[in-house]
Design a protein that fits this description.
CATH topology: TIM Barrel
Number of domains: 1
CATH superfamily: NADP-dependent oxidoreductase domain
Shape: globular
CATH architecture: Alpha-Beta Barrel
CATH class: Alpha Beta
């Protein structure tokens, strides 16, 4: 067993900071704790004004998922659905050298569960005709005829919101009217101010925002309040990436995001069945309570030194979320 797996499972045998662990579980091995909690129901929350009921843990199709080899990713998707995950997020450019794009992987498994799950994808282009080609390709890859959520990928500090409104945002509205997608939105890990402005000026349904205790980008303070005010369904991302092994646990990091008022779910990419089952076990133990006692400020102070490109790969100028 790898050191990483051991460190992740360590929280199950003790009470992590701010996380209540059922006392009876302390006498069990970590594997027994995981097995006992996997059988419970998946906590669900309403995704803002969409009215969709989403699992508090969402499945990300990005780089961590793409690390799974052929023969491993298929049962990973099946297991996620079996254990109650119902929101699956992807993007038209997720591939990282794998034989298949991430959307093609989704297309091999998810269509047979279509009525029970929610599928989101994102397009990169800000040019309407090219964005439309991405959308058409995504539908073909995933073997579906509509999206539950369709998004503009990665809103940047340099975005011209007026141009977005006249271009790809206008196209998103049309696709929603035509039933190609039920809801529309955007993702952002690089600009909380632009995200706030977009939420305030345009009518979006869902936002995926970077949110972790380093406070890098300050999304929880800047963009999340705007989303709450307009009831925009919010999903937290970059919740764990690059933070494990720095004196914190998956329990703390996930709870940090899920106890934020307005956050419906945390989207996480999973490399390996152990990691998936551990995270699902964790969220099932935490339940649905956003107001559970948790020392947000204490964890922020502890991880503040990681707030930047020196520690977060996704904060580096050359990084591309693709």
């Amino acid at each position: 067993m790898s050191k990483n797996v051991i460190s992740r499972r360590g929280f199950l045998g003790r009470a992590a900071t701010g996380v209540a662990v059922v006392p009876a579980l302390k006498a069990m091995t970590s594997g027994e704790v995981i097995a006992s909690s996997l059988s419970g129901p998946m906590p669900m929350r309403t995704l803002g004004k969409t009215g969709l009921e989403v699992s508090v843990l969402s499945f990300g199709g990005g780089s961590q998922f793409l690390k799974n080899k052929d023969g491993d990713w298929e049962p990973l998707l099946e297991r996620a659905i079996e254990l109650g995950v119902n929101y699956f997020d992807n993007s038209s450019n997720y591939q990282w050298g794998a034989k298949m794009t991430s959307e093609e992987r989704f297309g091999e498994i998810l269509p047979r569960y279509r009525k029970d799950i929610l599928i989101c994808t994102k397009f990169d282009s800000r040019e309407p005709a090219e964005a439309m080609r991405e959308v058409e390709t995504s539908l073909k890859r995933m073997k579906i005829d509509y999206f539950d959520v369709l998004m503009m990928h990665s809103i940047e500090p340099s975005e011209d919101l007026a141009a977005l409104e006249k271009g790809v945002y206008k196209q998103l509205l049309r696709l929603k009217e035509e039933g190609v997608t039920r809801f529309i939105g955007f993702s952002s890990m690089n600009s909380a101010p632009r995200s706030k402005e977009l939420i305030e000026k345009l009518d979006v349904d869902v936002a995926i925002l970077a949110m972790n205790p380093t406070k890098y980008g300050n999304f929880a303070k800047v963009a999340l309040p705007a989303a709450r005010k307009k009831d925009v369904g919010t999903i937290a991302m970059k919740v764990i990436r690059d933070l494990l092994g720095n004196g914190t646990s998956p329990a703390e990091l996930i709870q940090y995001a899920l106890t934020r008022d307005g956050v419906a779910s945390a989207v996480i990419g999973h490399y390996g069945m152990d990691v998936l089952e551990e995270n699902i076990s964790l969220v099932k133990q935490l339940g649905t309570d956003r107001k559970a006692a948790f020392d947000h400020r204490g964890l922020e102070n502890r991880l503040a030194h990681l707030a930047g490109p020196h520690a977060l790969c996704w904060a580096r100028p050359e990084y591309r979320d693709c």
